[in-house]
Design a protein that fits this description.
Elements lengths: L4 E3 L25 E10 L7 E3 L5 E3 L2 H9 L4 E4 L10 E5 L6 H9 L4 E8 L25 H5 L2 H4 L10 E6 L49 E3 L17 H10 L17 E6 L5 E3 H13 L4 E4 L8 H12 L3 E5 L17 E7 L17 E4 L10 E6 L12 E6 L2 H19 L5 H10 L7 H4 L10 H5 L1 E5 L3 E3 L2 E10 L4 E4 L4 E4 L14 E5 L2 E5 L6 E5 L8 E6 L5 E10 L3 E5 L3 E9 L3 E5 L3 E4 L2 E5 L2 E5 L2 E6 L3 E4 L2 E5 L8 E6 L2 E12 L3 E7 L2 E8 L6 E5 L1
Parallel strand pairs: 8-10, 8-12, 9-10, 12-13, 13-14, 14-15, 18-20, 19-21, 20-22, 20-23, 21-24, 22-25, 23-26, 24-27, 25-27, 26-28, 27-29, 28-30, 29-31, 29-32, 30-33, 31-34, 32-35, 33-36, 34-37, 35-38, 36-38, 37-39, 38-40, 39-41
Antiparallel strand pairs: 1-11, 2-6, 2-7, 3-4, 5-6, 16-17
Helix pairs in contact: 5-8, 6-7, 8-9
Length: 710
């Protein structure tokens, strides 16, 4: 039977960057503290609190603290200061890893000589893999060998996820060099029903001539070779260049493997190998069979780095069936510099990918058009000197790491490589959002794209712009419609809850704030600002608080905090922890908070409208715990406020402002200037049934009504 052939457009991809340091491990969002460890700051800064008994146990100068520590099985204590330090009030206590830290922290926090206590939080760095070519300029042309990954900000995206092994990517192409050291057994999907010894890899013993899963494909352990009709989708020996190996290595080369080879976009995903052609052609009938196989065997993503001018109804029907099954499909736009449609990429169900260069201008040969969904950084098909190093199959040219025919080379992958890059980004999104619909993944992919400089972008012919995995995985910009965050969110740039919109944050959610404003937006282009023009409703529980904190330890240098501007609908905080901001909360509309913990900020709360604060802790604020400039502030029910200068400060900041402050049943502590301070223009200042440590300074002449009972 005569074959209908689809031309394979191979323009090999480029990849640039900057020098970065390596790391063996990425911090894991959601497991962001050391189990069994707490950090305690004591109120007396010059008194050594902890000693060790002759028996080696932990002993302190406070009997009430000893009772808590010993009852909880304290194992060790570590001073967090040097022998010459003037400050001797910081210690790390270690308990059994399974210790219930919430109750322990509350017990320690209740002690009067404790300034603050918290988990031993973990902080993250850019996750830069140690692969040789990811951090190398082999041909010394001034760009690193995988520059496109840096353009996609993958080195920052990998802080958040490196992928998941349950994300299966079907690669319909010319096969894969499965013997390449950078495309080993960890890379390929394994059909568990055909894996005879259940070791998760292809072994000779798995090839037994039986169809264990009854799908009609005998011994299809890692996929199928539809081109030659067998179970080994390995390239032909004469396939110099081997397109499928290149594409697969961009998506999922073995990564962070002892300084060897190249990095893949998604480190943990698995590739279902679906061979449908050789180095010259992809076979239509084989593509249709491969799509159906992928649909029937659990693929979540399909990469199709090939294109044809022919719109074939049978191909479209197979793609529609895969789309109905929830499969995300990615196709290359093609590389003959035309606006004409190319298939399968031009089908509405497929994410069609064009190629742009390092300046985000369309590459010379890339196709374009209104059906392009997104672009990817690449080199043009006719510029191998701008290309990237990928895994390859063929004769060695002396690249480091070459082993026989299993080699590395620079190639200009163009839209084929661009499609692979987008596929890798989608794999990360699916790992970060398990169970999300394909529509959600597509929306997030497009939301993160960067505007292109090419005029074709403004004409709507380069899709959403250039793919950026980090932006797609993170929160930034404006929330126009009411939405809910759950489990985990990472804010990478200035964020605004628009007027009329509500952002609800579910219990147990961790919100990380990036170390810098990736969008370089707002008045402060270096630090992140979280602005509320609508309404913010954060509802944690005692068992599952919402934690909002900077990615870096010195977070107040990175983010400004929450801003509730005049005209917004205000906000509500229940069982919320805010750490490492410049000013945690600044509000010009009413805010209520209960069981709020603010620590390591310059100012805890800056209040310019009504504030209700109960059962809360504001500690380690380097300036003020609470400063009230306008409105009525009610601070009561076992709230602790601490600031290096003032615990609570009230002052009429604006002409004609009315300031009323009531502090009841609270502990106001300070080791700096003043525990409670009131100055000019305060209408009513009432402090009673409270403990004030530090000076109590209330300007009688400036205060119309005052009552102090401490």
């Amino acid at each position: 039977m005569k074959r209908v052939l689809l031309a394979v457009f191979v323009s090999m991809i480029a990849i640039t960057s900057i020098g970065m340091r390596s790391s063996d491990r990425a911090p894991t969002p959601g497991v962001d503290f050391v189990p069994g460890e707490v950090v305690v700051f004591f109120t007396d800064r010059e008194l050594e609190v902890v000693s060790t008994t002759a028996e080696g146990g932990v002993n302190t100068i406070y009997s009430s603290l000893n009772a808590v520590l010993w009852a909880r099985g304290v194992q060790s204590a570590k001073a967090l200061f040097g022998p010459r330090s003037a400050l001797k009030n910081a210690y790390l206590f270690r308990f059994p890893a399974e210790a219930a830290l919430d109750g322990l922290i509350e017990e320690i926090r209740a002690l009067p000589f404790v300034r603050s206590v918290d988990r031993n939080w973990l902080f993250g760095l850019d996750m830069v893999p140690n692969d040789y070519y990811f951090n190398h300029d082999y041909n010394e042309d001034g760009q690193l060998d995988q520059w496109t990954f840096y353009k996609m900000q993958l080195q920052r995206a990998w802080d958040l996820t490196t992928g998941e092994s349950n994300v299966v990517i079907g690669v319909i192409d010319t096969g894969i060099d499965r013997l390449h050291p950078d495309l080993d057994d960890n890379v390929t999907w394994v059909n568990t029903d055909e894996d005879i010894n259940h070791n998760g890899r292809l072994d000779p013993g798995d090839i037994n001539g039986e169809d264990e899963d009854g799908n009609g494909y005998i011994d299809d352990v890692i996929g199928w070779d539809f081109w030659e009709g067998d179970n080994d989708p390995y390239p032909d020996p004469g396939d110099e260049g081997h397109h499928g190996t290149i594409v697969s290595s961009i998506i999922r080369a073995e990564t962070n493997n002892d300084g060897y080879g190249v990095a893949g976009a998604s480190w943990e995903s698995r590739i279902m190998v679906l061979r449908a052609g050789d180095e010259l052609h992809i076979d239509l009938g084989d593509v249709i069979a491969a799509i159906n196989y992928a649909r029937d065997n659990g693929t979540g993503i399909l990469n199709m780095s090939f294109s044809s001018e022919f719109d074939v109804s049978q191909l479209h029907q197979a793609i529609q069936a895969a789309d109905a099954a929830g499969i995300l499909m990615v196709g290359s736009a093609g590389d003959d510099a035309t606006e004409e449609p190319r298939y399968p990429g031009s089908y509405a169900e497929v994410i069609r990918v064009a190629a742009v260069d390092s300046t985000t201008a369309k590459t010379t040969g890339s196709n374009y058009g209104v059906d392009v969904a997104i672009c990817a950084p690449s080199a043009p098909w006719d510029r191998p000197d701008l290309g990237a190093v990928t895994c390859n199959f063929g004769n060695s040219e002396g690249y480091p790491g070459d082993q026989g025919v299993h080699v590395f080379k620079h190639f200009e992958v163009a839209t084929s490589g661009g499609a692979a890059e987008v596929t890798g980004a989608i794999a990360l999104l699916k790992a970060a959002h398990p169970g999300a619909s394909k529509e959600f993944i597509k929306d997030e992919l497009a939301r993160g794209a960067v505007a292109c400089t090419d005029p074709l972008y403004a004409q709507g012919k380069l899709g959403a712009g250039m793919v950026n995995a980090y932006r797609s995985l993170t929160k930034w910009g404006t929330i126009e419609e009411s939405t809910t965050w759950s489990n985990f969110a990472f804010v990478s740039g200035d964020l605004t809850v628009a007027e009329g919109a509500t952002l609800t944050v579910d219990a147990g959610t961790t919100i990380w704030i990036a170390r810098d404003d990736n969008e370089k937006s707002g008045g402060d282009t270096g630090r992140i600002e979280f602005v509320v023009d609508g309404y913010l409703d954060i509802r944690g529980t005692a068992e599952n608080p919402v934690v909002i904190r900077a990615w870096d330890a010195v977070g107040r240098d990175n983010w400004l905090g929450f801003r509730f501007w005049a005209g917004c609908q205000g906000g509500n905080f229940e069982h919320v922890v805010i750490k490492n901001a410049s000013t945690a909360i600044e509000h010009y509309e009413p805010v209520t908070a209960s069981h709020l913990v603010i620590s390591n900020c310059e100012i805890g709360i800056e209040s310019y409208d009504d504030l209700t604060l109960t059962n809360s802790r504001l500690t380690d604020c380097t300036d003020f715990g609470v400063v009230v400039g306008v409105g009525q502030a009610t601070v009561h029910a076992d709230t602790i406020a601490y600031g290096d200068h003032y615990g609570i400060r009230a002052a009429a900041y604006f002409t004609g402002a009315v300031v009323d402050v009531e502090v009841e049943d609270c502990y106001i502590h300070d080791n700096g200037a003043t525990g409670v301070h009131s100055s000019s223009g305060v209408h009513h200042f009432d402090v009673h049934s409270s403990t004030v440590s530090g000076n109590l300074s209330i300007a009688e002449a400036a205060c119309h009504e005052r009552r102090v009972s401490c």
